[in-house]
């Protein structure tokens, strides 16, 4: 196996997504991971680094093994460098503004990898990067059940192992995208799935997470994912939502084999105690991605495909 390239990673956010995957990537030799954060997370990362408590193994990455930690509220004063990869670990409704803040760290060959839920925002990410005249946007999403235990400390309790799904919007993977794949393959406690048809995989996750959120959000915290197939009424509701969104996928020319619905039922059965992040945010009264998920289903259903 050839030696892995040494990449500079800039990750926006140190929550359940950015915090976890950034820490795992930082465990790979030669990778320098920087975060854009603020307030308590900024102080925690500068003092203690990133700590992961995970069913895939615990780890703490000290500040000395990270790149510069950047203050999102004072980016004009922060160190500038050309990132090899900009990864967006923020929420879907924040992605546009967060990406714009990353522009000074984008170079001609920088890859931009979004990990948000939803499908509407992907074209926005691509259009913004194209407007810069530099960098290259990828399509991406991730699968993980995790949350902030405290600033700089991420708890991961389901999805084993968590993974990033990514690929080109069109055409074969570039050499640099293949290098990202090699680095993610070397990272412990996660997988990196480079897909020929990344958009189909992202829509498949979108279908699942929308349907699951619609059931969990109205049923309450006791309706963890493993409970849905155990209660016929919940499973019927979930299946109806899945088939409705699969029809939407097909109307947009996205491939979706209906056999995947049954495969997702089995995934629910083994997801003990799992819930979608959107459901948890709704239950706790926090801002959520409900408009980026269920709202987008309504909008796209009304638009000509």
TrEMBL record:
Domain Ketopantoate reductase N-terminal: 9-169
InterPro entries: 6-PGluconate_DH-like_C_sf, 6PGD_dom2, ApbA, KPA_reductase, KPR-Related, KPR_N, NAD(P)-bd_dom_sf
Keywords: NADP, Oxidoreductase
Domain of life: Eukaryota
Membrane-spanning ranges: none
One Pfam family cited in the UniProt record for this chain: ApbA
Domain Ketopantoate reductase C-terminal as annotated: residue spans: 199-302
Family: Belongs to the ketopantoate reductase family.
Cross-referenced PANTHER family: 2-DEHYDROPANTOATE 2-REDUCTASE, PROBABLE 2-DEHYDROPANTOATE 2-REDUCTASE
UniProt-recorded name of the protein: 2-dehydropantoate 2-reductase
């Amino acid at each position: 196996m050839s030696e892995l390239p040494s990449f500079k990673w800039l990750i926006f956010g140190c929550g359940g997504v950015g915090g976890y995957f950034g820490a795992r990537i930082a465990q790979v030799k030669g990778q320098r991971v920087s975060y854009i954060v603020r307030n308590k997370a900024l102080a925690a990362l500068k003092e203690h680094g990133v700590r992961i408590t995970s069913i895939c193994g615990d780890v703490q990455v000290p500040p000395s093994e990270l790149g510069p930690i950047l203050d999102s509220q004072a980016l004009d004063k922060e160190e500038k460098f050309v990132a090899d990869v900009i990864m967006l670990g923020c929420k879907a409704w924040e992605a546009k503004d967060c990406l714009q803040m990353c522009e000074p760290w984008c170079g001609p060959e920088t890859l931009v990898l979004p990990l948000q839920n939803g499908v509407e925002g992907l074209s926005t990410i691509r259009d913004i990067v194209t407007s810069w005249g530099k960098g290259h946007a990828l399509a991406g999403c991730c699968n993980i059940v995790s949350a902030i235990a405290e600033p700089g400390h991420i708890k991961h309790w389901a999805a084993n192992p968590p993974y990033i799904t990514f690929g080109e919007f069109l055409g074969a993977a570039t050499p640099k995208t293949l290098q990202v794949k090699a680095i993610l393959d070397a990272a412990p406690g996660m997988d990196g799935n480079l897909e020929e048809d990344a958009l189909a995989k992202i829509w498949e996750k979108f279908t699942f997470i929308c349907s699951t959120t619609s059931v969990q959000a109205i049923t309450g915290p006791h309706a963890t994912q493993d409970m849905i197939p155990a209660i016929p009424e919940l499973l019927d509701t979930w299946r109806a939502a899945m088939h409705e969104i699969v029809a939407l996928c097909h109307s947009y020319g996205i491939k979706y084999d209906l056999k995947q619905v049954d495969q997702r039922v089995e995934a629910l059965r083994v997801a003990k105690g799992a819930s979608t992040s959107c459901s948890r945010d709704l239950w706790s009264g926090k801002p959520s991605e409900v408009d980026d998920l269920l709202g987008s289903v309504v909008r796209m259903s009304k638009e000509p495909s």
